[in-house]
Design goal:
TIM Barrel, disordered C terminus
């Protein structure tokens, strides 16, 4: 389950976050940098105000990577009674020494390391974090005016980060100027945390106050516990392809067509030796028949995002050389059909640089036919 982390700067903002449905209240001062810290007294007051209704985390500040400085700051934050302390792994200094210095403290409070996608993060430190007792790690952005998380890390790289964290038993979180349309794209990566600040604030951005309506809008895009069992009136199957029971199918089920056309990407594809040495331009066109919901489309909860198709294609071609366009088309079709509300998909894959004109293949696949043929459905993020 993915939890919503809402960054707040006071007990008053914490109450807004709680009312809006945030799972974790995260204390920081957005006017003081990427991980600007609030005072220990503000943290204590907020912990008392929350009174165990939700988990509380707090950042240690924008600190130089010096072991004595980092250890002192983390100890001070840990003493306030928070559930988690977030420590930024900033460029420069000795990050490894800082991590080792905190090994003893990790038994008293859960530590979360925060890497910055726009600052050449050294993710090889993940095993060291685990050995030192860190509970998890996050990818964020340091420069809040230099683009969103997805401007710096593509979905394949974020997928690798989440999987690497999970492989060693650590929490994986994603943040970094995230906007509502990013949420469906990131949910399929199955992160444990999605962190927000600017998307929750009123006019003025991340340094403005929290707005309850915006908090609720973001909360509404993240499936709560129990959504799989139909506890909510929103069909969260539109947001992520994992963990939900397939919807009923039939010829009389109304559908909408969601399509991607003229997507051209460099791909390592082909059976000739030369085609293994360099990528070539490939054009993709995909049309998915998606069952309608009972709701009129009003926000991202009510639509099947075309980003799920384009992201899936990019992750499939990032997995390595593919010998045949037919193979790639089948993988794309299986990936799209893995989404429980897709009943049919048409996939066209065209190679543009063969010297023989535009060549390729178009296939049509249905969920019913896939079941009849006992054809395995490829998970949305399969590396194969």
């Amino acid at each position: 389950m993915t939890r919503m982390l809402a960054s707040v700067n006071s007990p008053e903002e914490a109450e807004i976050a709680l009312t809006g449905g945030a799972d974790i209240v995260d204390l920081k001062d957005p006017t003081r940098g990427a991980l600007g810290a609030v005072t220990p007294e503000v943290i204590r007051t907020t912990v008392r105000a929350v009174r165990g209704r939700r988990l509380v985390s707090a950042v240690a500040g924008d600190l130089p990577m010096q072991p004595d400085v980092v250890a002192a700051a983390v100890r001070e934050i840990a003493a306030t009674g928070v559930d988690y302390v977030k420590l930024g792994i900033f460029p420069g200094g000795d990050a490894a020494a800082c991590i080792n210095e905190l090994a003893g403290l990790a038994v008293r409070v859960k530590l979360i390391a925060v890497f910055f996608a726009d600052a050449s993060p050294d993710l090889s430190l993940l095993p060291m974090l685990k050995r030192s007792g860190f509970a998890g790690a996050m990818i964020d952005t340091q420069g809040k005016t230099a683009g969103r998380l997805l401007d710096h890390f593509d979905l394949s790289r974020l997928r690798g980060f989440v999987e690497d964290c999970h492989a060693i038993g650590m929490i994986a979180g994603l943040a970094g100027s995230l906007e509502p349309p990013d949420i469906p794209r990131l949910l399929v990566l199955a992160p444990d945390l999605l962190g927000f600040r600017g998307a929750l604030c009123g006019p003025g951005g991340r340094t403005a106050g929290l707005d309850l309506g915006r908090v609720q809008a973001v909360r509404g895009l993240i499936p709560p516990e129990g959504a799989e069992a139909g506890a909510c009136d929103v069909d969260y199957r539109l947001l992520a392809a994992r963990g939900y029971t397939p919807a009923p199918t039939g010829d009389d089920v109304p559908v909408d067509l969601v399509f991607v056309d003229d997507l051209v990407l460099p791909v390592f594809i082909g059976t000739y030796a030369r085609e293994r040495d360099a990528p070539q331009k490939v054009r993709f066109a995909v049309t998915a028949s998606v069952m309608r919901t009972s709701r009129t489309a009003e926000d991202m909860r009510d639509v099947f995002s075309y980003d799920l198709i384009t992201d899936g294609i990019r992750m499939l071609i990032a997995s390595g050389h593919i010998p045949l366009v037919e193979t790639l088309a089948e993988r794309i079709a299986a990936m799209v059909l893995n989404h429980p509300r897709v009943t049919k998909v048409v996939v066209r894959v065209q190679k543009l640089e063969t010297g023989s004109g535009t060549v390729g293949v178009e296939i049509e696949r249905t969920r019913a036919a896939a079941r009849t043929m006992d054809r395995p459905v490829v998970p949305l993020l399969s590396k194969s």
